[in-house]
Description:
Layout lengths: L2 E6 L1 H6 E11 L3 H8 L3 E2 L4 E4 L4 E4 L2 E2 L16 E4 L2 H11 L4 E11 L2 E11 L2 H24 L1
Antiparallel strand pairs: 1-8, 2-7, 2-9, 3-6, 4-5, 5-7, 8-9
Amino acid sequence: MDIKVVATNRKAGFEYFLLERFEAGLSLHGSEIKSIRAGQVSLREAYVRVDGKSAWLMDAHIAPYEQANRFNHDPKRPRHLLLHKREIRELWEAVRQKGVTIVPTRIYLKGGRAKLEFAIAKGKKLHDKRQAIAARDAEREMNREFSRDQ
């Protein structure tokens, strides 16, 4: 199937160790899907809340759709995630562990439907972030030297 990535949370990989990834459908209003197709989405402060029975995408900003006039949506409203009971139970068990959270990583369109990819994540300490920066710089320097040799 054809996948079109609409928004990514680039900070998620830097701030957290991403342990296990999931995919969920989003329950949206008509003006929200139009804004998503236009790329008007931000996952910067977003997180996923699980209460044992359902999962919700919280604080994701989907901009109001210009042509929707008075039928527009609230940009920061909680959005229901479409998951199987087994997946919700697995997420609920993971969240009850100390130091584990659920972070959205990207929103994309797959077969005409909006999907959310999210991950069970564990927060990084400052020294872990420094190691990631050092590894990224070393990789960049190695690529630079390699391209210079050719």
